[in-house]
Amino acid sequence: MADMLTQISALDDMIVPGRFGRSLPEGPGVALSLVHPCEVVTVIAAKGKARALTAAMKKDFGLDLPGMGASASARGMSLHGNGPEQWLAVAPDAAAGSLAQKLEKKLGAMAMVSDQSHGRTVMRMAGARARDVLGKGTAVDLRPDKFTPGMCAATQIGHVGVLIACTAENSFELSVLRSFAEGFWLGVCELALEWGYEIR
Amino acid sequence: MTSFRFDTGGLIDRSSVIEFSFDGKTLHGHHGDTLASALLANGQLLMGRSFKYHRPRSVITAGAAEPNALMEIGEGGRLEPNTRATMQELYDGLVAKSQNRWPTLERDFGAINSIASSLFVAGFYYKTFMWPKRFWEAIYEPIIRRAAGLGHLSHEDDPDRYEKAYAHCDVLVVGSGPTGLMAALAAARSGASVILADEHAACGGSLLREREEIAGQEGHEWAAATLGELAAMANVTIMARTTVIGAYDQGVFGALERVQKHVALPDHDVPVEKLWRIVAKACVMATGAEERPIVFGGNDRPGVMTASAMRAYANQYAVAPGRSACVFTASDSGYRTARDMKAHGLHVEAIIDARADAPDIETQGVPVLTGAVVTNVDGGKHGMKAIEIDRGRGHETIPCQSLAMSGGWSPVVHLACHQGARPSWDEDEYCFMPPQDNPAIIAAGSANAVWQLSKCLADGAARGEQAAKLAGFKTTKTAVPKGMDDASHTSAPVWWVKQSTGKPFVDYQNDVTAKDLPLAAREGYDHIELAKRYTTSGMATDQGKLGNVNAIGILADATGRDMHEIGTTTFRPFYTPVSFGALGGQHVNEHFSPVRMSPLHNWAADLGAEFVETGLWYRSSWFPEEGDDWLAAMTREVLNTRAHVGLCDVSTLGKIDIKGSDATEFINRLYCNAFAKLPVGKARYGLMLREDGFVGDDGTTSRLSDTHYFMTTTTGHAAATMRDIEFAHQALWPELDVQYASVTDQWAQMAIAGPSSRDVLGKIVDADLSNEAFPFLAARQVKVMGSVPGMLFRISFSGELAYELAVPAGYGEAVANAIMHAGEPYGIGPYGLEALSAMRIEKGFVTHNEINGRVTAGDVGMGRMLSKKKDYIGRMMSEREGLNDPDREQLVGVRPVNPDWRFRAGCHLVNPGDKASLKTDQGYVSSVAYSPMLESWVGLAMLKRGRDRHGEKIVLWDGLRDVQMQAEVCDPVFFDPAQEKAHG
Description:
The complex is a heterodimer. Chain A is an alpha+beta fold. Helix content of chain A is about 20%, strand content about 35%. Chain A has two domains: about 20-35 and about 120-200, Gyrase A, domain 2 (2-Layer Sandwich); about 40-115, Alpha-Beta Plaits. Chain A has helices at about 50-60, 100-105, 130-135, 180-190; strands at about 20, 30-35, 40-45, 70-75, 75-85, 85-90, 110-115, 120-125, 150-155, 160-170, 170-175, 195-200. In chain A, strands 1-12-2-8-11-10-9 form a seven-stranded mixed beta sheet. The longest helix of chain A is centred in the first third of the chain and has 12 residues, at about 50-60. The radius of gyration of chain A is 17 Å and the shape is globular. Chain B is an alpha+beta fold. In chain B, a hairpin with a 4-residue loop joins strand 51 and strand 52 (about 965-970). The longest helix of chain B is centred in the middle third of the chain and has 18 residues, at about 455-470. Chain B is elongated. Chains A and B meet through strand 3, strand 7 and helix 4 of A and strand 9, strand 33, strand 41 and helix 20 of B.
């Protein structure tokens, strides 16, 4: 019966594809999109288990456990270090509920695994002006040589906590708590008006 | 009037014609004009009236320090008062109005203040307080209020957008004159990332305003070429129209960018102003120097301006305040003005040099009167006719239409002082030097008293290299182009021409005259900070940029102290005024604060819910049917839930996932009641104390496995509780193996309450819900609708047979709809926060209305929960004598004698017969609801020794509404005291 249930995003009725804001000759400054559904899991190392966890991550997921402020990706899963011995695992293409189950099974008592797939809303922002748009909200140094692919930062935009991960030169993955997502999305869109944006 | 535009010259685009209006008159200017230069070009010398005396005023400067030419720009919601005409770029359709005059600038009624000026001396305002009292209320206060403030507001919404933004760089260069350009070049060539900010629309600083040569080019040409070179470098960002307004800790600078203040109709997609926070490793303060006026009679008359301003108007904008000029100077700047004005074809009558010895400068036939001073200016709103001078043989008159004055130069030291450091007086340079307390703020060029062009270029390069090194870059020696110098030396300044016959102004904008300062000293206000406030010198929107040093000089003179002893007042951000729009940035209207939406928001909205803001959340409050007010809706919802079944969104409760081998121990230490033996599959109500022993928060925690718990908190304290938990683990018990994560947003949670709740849920949840299999306080992971993983808790905040069901948020709406569908035959209805609240008050359950930070567990009847067998947060402090005083206020119920009497939370309790006072106060009402079950208004209250007083009469005293009513004290549990319904 649940197969018939669709997981509804917090931005369900917000995503209207099209071009908005200022129209500049070089095209929209950023493209915004929602990643939904998206498996998201909080992983926190159990006390004294960080080393074992590192080995298990390497062995079972092919990942080098990143430190705080760093990300690593392999086999469709990214890990973002968003706290001391704490990570946010993100897997956009995994089946509903599968990521937490898999991590729980493989990591056992080495870590706490807490499913956040419904609790966090994941978005992408890419484009030549992405750093400028984000720079209107966060104090993080986003210069291209300072915030490079493979880095992430837990910060705030418009008083809303957000994890920003740099996934490619001018591409970013943003994740916020679900309840804040609608206001966050509207706020970010407004910050992008200056250079125009495209919703995909 | 006398001002006019030259036929040739200036850095303006004469091929463009810009139409604008001033006080309703249509005027024309060119691209490259400021409003001030365009007004001068149109012969509009008169630009405003002064604050106190309503004296006719024109521009004194050509830049940021302008005190006089303040105007209202724009119309409707865009109207902005106190805009400096010297900083306002001209644009097509600009509408400017003069300020502080009535009915018109030409005929201003307020000018009669000038006649009564002897009344309005320093401290006038304070003296009005003194005597007689009636005068203050009847006369002074209304008059002062009407006169206070410059310009006016439209009181309409500002239609424009403002934004804030961050920028990061290695080296911030403030000011793009010769020093700043060389500093930026030197720093950028090292590879450092450089931001070059300049407050003007066109970068180049003094190079646009002076007739100087660098490397054989005209100064402005060299500036343009250098700016071109900088713009081509990937590591350089040039920010024009950007004023660096403050220097803060850790390399943070504030900057205001006027993005669209130079267009008639701003593009709504682009902010009109951006407030930047620039984080820089080092800053080169190439902010230049401000030329000081001289304090002499009539130094405020239209046509009088600083010597450098007169040059700037002539060289950059090709305008002059009059056809003929005199120069009054104590520095060589005056000679330069005489030279430039002569080159522009003006007749320069004389250079009046206050110094005994004239410098050896070629004046091309302009007579130099040494040891002479200007004592008065003959002029008014239409311009000047002549000046009166004194060179030791009585007063003489020289006819002229304008006067340039130069009292020497003051480095613009503000940014070096914003963190508290003070500038120091330099006896050789006759100026206050920037402090060097912060090694990352490096003063360069004339901001550091380096006066000549060639030296400024060299200093800029050296300071740019120094800044880049500080930021960690290797530098090579920057080649410095050759600058053409002329003599530029300041001799001892003249603070005040005492033999003045006219009014000598120190602070133009606040109409402070030279006499006010000695008066302040005589009346005991001889400290500069006191003198400032007593005289208001330096308190206007220009913050004394022109007048402060003269004021210090006059005060030094009056008190027989030297400049160093007097010192300056405190420099605080912002350097120049910042609009509230920019300070608000994007955080206005719906973006003022973040909004949180429940995953069941749309479910409730579809059912017609009214929402209420609780913190950041929007919660469904009541579900009106046709014609319902909140009371009718709430009553219907309560009755339906208690008779049948209701569904309520409780997703906003804080939820925390807790795991780890020490999770049990951890939770046991957080709550004051026992949790160590909570069986798997059970929930328990828990009370947390703060460290000080008072109640902090409450909620239920369920044990899902040996090492896995699910904690709920109140909606309001969710974040605070999470923070307390983090603190407890990180700081108090880091040895515990426990991990926790907020899962508030992961779960949609709904309360299903009422006698039929079991039957309805049975159709949705795959579990045996019989009382035996799923008793009161059972808590289990369940499958919902076949496969949705959910959590079911048998807990009740309504006193009914009730459950709370949590499902992943994205399924919340579908599950809620399914429950409503399944419940249809049972008469299910939604209920909101109002009904939830009424039912919990009927049951005497507490919320943060009661546990408001001032109550103990004992106060709310939970004293027995305090465990004696374990330690927990707040235990020691909860044992304090005062927290166990039998006289403390305790939780009771109150019912008015007449059930129809409505009373409000916040009422105080008074014994019958007592007059309400602090002494007789017996407590207060914390929560009130209309109880549909009792058909009466009922309340929870905190009453002294309340538990022993059930049955007593008490008076509810509402001081705000001036209402008193008789009530009876009762048990706080109004409904089903035996708790039969919840357990059934």
